[in-house]
């Protein structure tokens, strides 16, 4: 059973047309046309996005915030850490489709071992995307410190 949360903010978005349609946040700040990539048998229309792009952007931003938060707890300035998320989609052994994620955390100003500690703690204890994916999505951390 999932932990209950005390919601402080709720984002609202909707999509029409599925993976070959349009999605937007209700406040209009996110608004993108979508199309299935050619690699997945879709039209791969130019200037379109995918749900995986949106998930990757959200996870990278959220994880970066978690690394910064943990850094402050350890008196390490991790505000400049760059987090990249690579989100892959493909068929699952049990049928349907699944995701996998590679998160890369880079900050040459933080020693490798320290950055590894911050990223691992952010992944295990802080980041809500990591909590949501745990046990459901293969997430790999790649750390590049100084």
UniProtKB/TrEMBL annotation:
Pfam families named in the record: OsmC (PF02566)
Ranges in a coiled coil: none
SUPFAM superfamilies: OsmC-like
Family: Belongs to the OsmC/Ohr family.
Protein name: Ohr subfamily peroxiredoxin
Organism name: Roseomonas fluvialis
Source species taxonomy: Bacteria, Pseudomonadati, Pseudomonadota, Alphaproteobacteria, Acetobacterales
């Amino acid at each position: 059973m999932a932990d209950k949360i005390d919601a402080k903010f709720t984002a609202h978005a909707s999509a029409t047309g599925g993976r070959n349609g349009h999605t937007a946040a209700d406040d209009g700040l996110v608004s993108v046309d979508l199309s299935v990539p050619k690699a997945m048998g879709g039209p791969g229309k130019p200037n379109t996005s995918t749900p995986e792009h949106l998930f990757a952007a959200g996870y990278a931003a959220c994880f970066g915030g978690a690394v910064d938060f943990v850094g402050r707890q350890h008196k390490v300035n991790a505000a400049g850490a760059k987090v990249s998320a690579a989100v892959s989609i493909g068929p699952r052994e049990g049928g349907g489709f699944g995701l996998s994620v590679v998160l890369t955390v880079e900050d040459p100003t933080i020693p490798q071992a320290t950055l590894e500690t911050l990223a691992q703690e952010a992944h295990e204890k802080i980041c809500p995307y990591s909590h949501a994916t745990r046990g459901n999505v293969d997430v790999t951390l790649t750390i590049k410190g100084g």
